[in-house]
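Sample entry (313 residues):
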Amino acid sequence: MLGCAVNDLDILKDLLISIKLRMKTIIIMIIMSNKVTHFLNVAASSPSLSTPVSANETVTLPCRTNQTSDLLTVEWSKAEMTPNITLLYRHGFETVEEKNSAFLNRTSFILEEVKLGNISQVISKLRLSDGGRYLCRTMVGKQQQVEAVLDLIERLLVSRQPVVAAQGDDVILQCLVEPPLDMVDMTVEWSRPDAKHRPKGMEYVHLYRDNREVLDMKSSSYHGRTALFAGGLRHGNISLIITNVTTADEGTYKCFVPKLHGNTKSSIVHLIVGELKSFAPLVVIFMCHTHTMCQWHILYEYVPYSYNELSTF
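Predicted structure, serialized as tokens:
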């Protein structure tokens, strides 16, 4: 039986399907190249601009030119890709013959604004593989260009509501790396920032390092009761399983990945553990795999009054 947050339907669903969340987050950073002249410039109020977007969404990489009367060719390309063309405009029309197939039907100009000097590239249905360095080039007299960078920044996603459990339950403390990186060779630390540490140093609830759990730094109260999803590590799922929880397990848990490139290397999950009488049955879910084999789950809602008081409602 899993103890879980019951106030958020999305979180509840994530726990019941073993956390198959696949939302990806990309951060777009627009920077000016030192090759830019007054003929071509990034449409930003400062040399650096950062805008967060999500995968499957649409982003615009800005590029403008003030030479519109004889604008014959506009080329957007991506470094370290063959063919490297992501968007090509010639003689008033977009051409696709030289375009990389990964960007077919996903990149475009705002055609009615090209003649006004707006030659920004619109990329739709963003993919993780879209991250990288892009060049916007024009052929007006001599070639001019600007540079735009799509930078993938990882972050940790955790339960937005406390995880609620009764004594004796098994719980999952959700922690997902997005975009879903392969974490098999990374270090993953689960700790209790609200707990008193031993004099010799940090004690971990669960420490994964060098492709295995490290036990000599593990808090004795969690021995034999924690695990990660072995198959999930490859897909960025570093959620912690705690079995047979007790009231002593209640508190704050920190999920920490030291080598993440993003600014968010750690996230906090709160666990509430109560006696069974402090929980009111909320719903019973039956899942039948065959005509003769069924599983059932009782989901509880934590209430601040006793079971006897609840029964009088």
